[in-house]
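Sequence, structure tokens passed on for absentees:
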Amino acid sequence: MFFRKIIPYFAIRFSIQEFKLFTMSRICEITGKKVMSGNNVSHSHAKSRRKFYPNLHTKKFFIPEEDRFITLKVSANGMRTIAKKGISNALRDAKAKGFYSPTV
């Protein structure tokens, strides 16, 4: 348990944006969906712990206002949000809620 108290070497060396490139978090950058925990329930109703993972995909999106591509880790629900609102509005809302922070 003492491993959690140790600061990783690369966390000291790099900024938050650069640190994000090294982490492999399972969080949607548009909707903020993340891993949930729960129980597997057997026929005898014995419970064992499990995780529910979001349906994440790494996908490139084109931003016409900036004339460039960005790569996002988005859930299926996040892709529907982008299709409905548009990539620019979806990114603006995600930044306001703190789900998306552009990297360097």
User: Anything to note?
Assistant: The helical segments are 9-13, 16-22, 76-85, 87-97. Strands lie at 36-41, 47-52, 56-63, 68-75. Residues 87-97 form the longest helix (11 residues). The mean pLDDT is 85.
